[in-house]
Model the fold of this input.
Amino acid sequence: MTATATSTPSIGQEWPEQGGVFIGSRLIDGVTHHIIIPGGSEFDLVDVEFKDLDSAVAGRGEVNGHGDWHAPDQKDMMLAYINVPDLFDKDDWYWTNKPYGSLSAWAVNFEDGGVDVWLRDDEFRVRPVRSIIASSL
Done:
């Protein structure tokens, strides 16, 4: 199925009007959002420390015609693992934007869907995501 400006593609399909690949929908603050990643691992930011997540994503600037990309939360990354794991590097971890205490943060591994806490000065990949409110289409 090819998406138009007002239709949602199948999970894992390109959504050019929204700047990438549709990975699924989820509730954010009680509102359904569609989650998009810019594409495959060629869009990963690599060797990023947790403290640099936001600046690394912002420094990337506009991608695929959109400038509202942000660091993913754990639910975004689990949605990606469930629906499009082949679009991620299975030999590395991906940061979420979720801290754990004052020294650690959560990351996801795409080989087995593992979620674990790592020191914030570890360097992992980051895949920017964007979300759009489903009813806005």
